[in-house]
Write a structure and sequence with these properties.
Layout: H1 18-43, H2 46-68, E1 72-77, E2 82-90, E3 93-96, E4 104-106, E5 111-118, E6 121-123, E7 127-132, E8 141-147, E9 152-157, E10 164-168, H3 173-176
Antiparallel strand pairs: 1-2, 1-7, 2-3, 2-4, 5-6, 5-8, 8-9, 9-10
Length: about 180
Protein backbone atom coordinates (compact mmCIF):
# COMPACT_ATOMS: atom_id res chain seq x y z
CA UNK A 1 0.00 0.00 0.00
CA UNK A 2 1.29 3.46 -0.89
CA UNK A 3 1.67 6.15 1.71
CA UNK A 4 -0.35 9.19 0.56
CA UNK A 5 1.53 11.62 2.84
CA UNK A 6 4.79 11.04 0.93
CA UNK A 7 3.38 12.06 -2.42
CA UNK A 8 2.75 8.56 -3.63
CA UNK A 9 6.23 7.20 -2.92
CA UNK A 10 6.69 4.09 -0.95
CA UNK A 11 8.88 3.93 2.12
CA UNK A 12 11.50 1.89 0.29
CA UNK A 13 11.87 4.37 -2.63
CA UNK A 14 15.05 6.48 -2.56
CA UNK A 15 16.41 9.11 -4.98
CA UNK A 16 15.56 12.51 -6.35
CA UNK A 17 13.02 13.53 -8.92
CA UNK A 18 14.01 15.42 -12.02
CA UNK A 19 12.38 18.59 -10.64
CA UNK A 20 14.38 18.38 -7.40
CA UNK A 21 17.63 18.02 -9.36
CA UNK A 22 16.67 20.91 -11.65
CA UNK A 23 15.96 23.17 -8.66
CA UNK A 24 19.33 22.32 -7.07
CA UNK A 25 21.16 22.99 -10.36
CA UNK A 26 19.30 26.29 -10.76
CA UNK A 27 20.32 27.38 -7.25
CA UNK A 28 23.95 26.43 -7.92
CA UNK A 29 23.90 28.35 -11.20
CA UNK A 30 22.50 31.45 -9.49
CA UNK A 31 25.12 31.31 -6.71
CA UNK A 32 27.88 30.85 -9.29
CA UNK A 33 26.59 33.76 -11.36
CA UNK A 34 26.68 36.01 -8.30
CA UNK A 35 30.07 34.83 -7.04
CA UNK A 36 31.97 34.74 -10.35
CA UNK A 37 32.23 38.52 -10.85
CA UNK A 38 33.59 38.92 -7.31
CA UNK A 39 36.14 36.16 -7.78
CA UNK A 40 37.12 37.53 -11.19
CA UNK A 41 37.50 41.05 -9.82
CA UNK A 42 39.79 39.85 -7.04
CA UNK A 43 42.01 37.96 -9.46
CA UNK A 44 42.00 40.56 -12.25
CA UNK A 45 45.32 41.94 -13.42
CA UNK A 46 45.39 45.46 -11.99
CA UNK A 47 48.27 46.59 -14.19
CA UNK A 48 46.51 45.70 -17.44
CA UNK A 49 43.11 46.96 -16.30
CA UNK A 50 44.70 50.27 -15.24
CA UNK A 51 46.34 50.64 -18.65
CA UNK A 52 43.03 49.86 -20.39
CA UNK A 53 41.26 52.52 -18.34
CA UNK A 54 43.92 55.09 -19.19
CA UNK A 55 43.69 54.17 -22.89
CA UNK A 56 39.89 54.59 -22.85
CA UNK A 57 40.31 57.98 -21.18
CA UNK A 58 42.90 59.06 -23.76
CA UNK A 59 40.68 57.99 -26.68
CA UNK A 60 37.70 59.74 -25.16
CA UNK A 61 39.61 62.99 -24.64
CA UNK A 62 41.04 62.90 -28.15
CA UNK A 63 37.54 62.53 -29.61
CA UNK A 64 36.08 65.10 -27.20
CA UNK A 65 38.68 67.75 -28.03
CA UNK A 66 38.12 67.29 -31.78
CA UNK A 67 34.32 67.42 -31.56
CA UNK A 68 33.98 70.32 -29.09
CA UNK A 69 36.97 72.26 -30.50
CA UNK A 70 38.28 72.77 -26.96
CA UNK A 71 41.65 72.05 -25.36
CA UNK A 72 41.48 69.26 -22.77
CA UNK A 73 44.19 68.13 -20.39
CA UNK A 74 44.78 64.78 -18.73
CA UNK A 75 46.55 65.56 -15.45
CA UNK A 76 48.64 63.08 -13.50
CA UNK A 77 49.50 63.26 -9.80
CA UNK A 78 52.44 60.87 -9.94
CA UNK A 79 52.98 60.44 -6.19
CA UNK A 80 49.35 59.63 -5.37
CA UNK A 81 48.59 57.63 -8.51
CA UNK A 82 45.70 59.89 -9.48
CA UNK A 83 44.62 61.35 -12.80
CA UNK A 84 41.85 63.73 -13.82
CA UNK A 85 40.54 65.79 -16.71
CA UNK A 86 40.47 69.56 -17.05
CA UNK A 87 39.50 71.83 -19.92
CA UNK A 88 40.88 75.19 -20.93
CA UNK A 89 38.77 78.07 -19.63
CA UNK A 90 41.07 80.88 -20.77
CA UNK A 91 44.64 81.48 -21.88
CA UNK A 92 46.74 79.27 -19.62
CA UNK A 93 43.77 78.55 -17.33
CA UNK A 94 42.33 75.09 -16.78
CA UNK A 95 39.43 73.98 -14.62
CA UNK A 96 37.67 70.72 -13.93
CA UNK A 97 35.46 69.95 -16.89
CA UNK A 98 31.73 69.99 -16.18
CA UNK A 99 30.84 68.29 -19.45
CA UNK A 100 33.31 65.42 -19.38
CA UNK A 101 31.94 62.15 -18.07
CA UNK A 102 35.25 61.19 -16.51
CA UNK A 103 36.17 63.31 -13.51
CA UNK A 104 38.96 61.83 -11.40
CA UNK A 105 40.52 58.40 -11.25
CA UNK A 106 43.06 56.60 -9.16
CA UNK A 107 45.29 53.67 -9.90
CA UNK A 108 44.72 50.61 -7.71
CA UNK A 109 47.02 50.42 -4.68
CA UNK A 110 48.98 47.65 -6.37
CA UNK A 111 49.85 49.91 -9.36
CA UNK A 112 51.76 53.18 -9.49
CA UNK A 113 53.04 55.70 -11.98
CA UNK A 114 56.80 55.41 -12.38
CA UNK A 115 56.86 58.61 -14.41
CA UNK A 116 55.19 60.41 -17.28
CA UNK A 117 57.18 61.83 -20.19
CA UNK A 118 55.27 64.51 -22.10
CA UNK A 119 56.91 66.69 -24.73
CA UNK A 120 60.29 65.15 -23.80
CA UNK A 121 59.96 66.31 -20.18
CA UNK A 122 60.02 63.54 -17.58
CA UNK A 123 57.92 63.94 -14.44
CA UNK A 124 58.62 61.39 -11.70
CA UNK A 125 57.29 63.42 -8.76
CA UNK A 126 54.43 65.86 -8.46
CA UNK A 127 52.15 66.64 -11.39
CA UNK A 128 52.42 66.15 -15.12
CA UNK A 129 49.92 66.40 -17.96
CA UNK A 130 49.05 65.57 -21.55
CA UNK A 131 47.23 68.13 -23.71
CA UNK A 132 44.54 67.19 -26.26
CA UNK A 133 44.17 69.88 -28.91
CA UNK A 134 41.01 70.81 -30.86
CA UNK A 135 42.74 69.97 -34.16
CA UNK A 136 43.06 66.31 -33.13
CA UNK A 137 46.70 66.42 -32.06
CA UNK A 138 47.95 65.20 -28.67
CA UNK A 139 51.16 65.87 -26.80
CA UNK A 140 53.59 63.02 -27.39
CA UNK A 141 53.47 61.12 -24.09
CA UNK A 142 54.98 58.03 -22.50
CA UNK A 143 53.25 56.74 -19.37
CA UNK A 144 55.20 54.24 -17.29
CA UNK A 145 53.26 52.01 -14.88
CA UNK A 146 54.56 49.47 -12.39
CA UNK A 147 52.77 46.96 -10.17
CA UNK A 148 53.67 45.50 -6.78
CA UNK A 149 55.35 42.53 -8.53
CA UNK A 150 57.71 44.94 -10.36
CA UNK A 151 56.06 44.28 -13.73
CA UNK A 152 56.11 47.38 -15.90
CA UNK A 153 54.07 48.63 -18.84
CA UNK A 154 54.77 51.61 -21.07
CA UNK A 155 51.91 53.40 -22.82
CA UNK A 156 53.05 55.52 -25.77
CA UNK A 157 50.59 58.04 -27.22
CA UNK A 158 51.08 58.82 -30.90
CA UNK A 159 50.67 62.61 -31.19
CA UNK A 160 49.20 62.51 -34.70
CA UNK A 161 46.87 59.52 -34.68
CA UNK A 162 46.04 59.46 -30.96
CA UNK A 163 46.62 55.72 -30.88
CA UNK A 164 48.13 54.25 -27.77
CA UNK A 165 50.62 51.40 -27.97
CA UNK A 166 51.36 49.28 -24.94
CA UNK A 167 54.78 47.73 -24.40
CA UNK A 168 55.88 45.31 -21.69
CA UNK A 169 58.65 46.81 -19.58
CA UNK A 170 60.02 50.31 -19.21
CA UNK A 171 60.54 51.79 -22.66
CA UNK A 172 62.29 55.02 -23.51
CA UNK A 173 61.43 56.70 -26.78
CA UNK A 174 64.83 55.67 -28.15
CA UNK A 175 63.92 52.00 -27.48
CA UNK A 176 61.24 52.20 -30.18
CA UNK A 177 63.50 53.65 -32.85
CA UNK A 178 65.41 51.43 -35.21
Amino acid sequence: MKNKSLGGRGFGHRGFTFIELAVVLLILAMVSALAFPLIYKMSADDLKSSSRHLIRTIRYLNDRAATTKKLYRLNYQIDRGEYWVTEQTGPGLFAASETVVFRRGALPRSVRFVDVVALNQKTALGEGHTDFYPVGRIDKTLIHLKDKNDRELTLIINPVTGRVKVYEGYWEETDREG
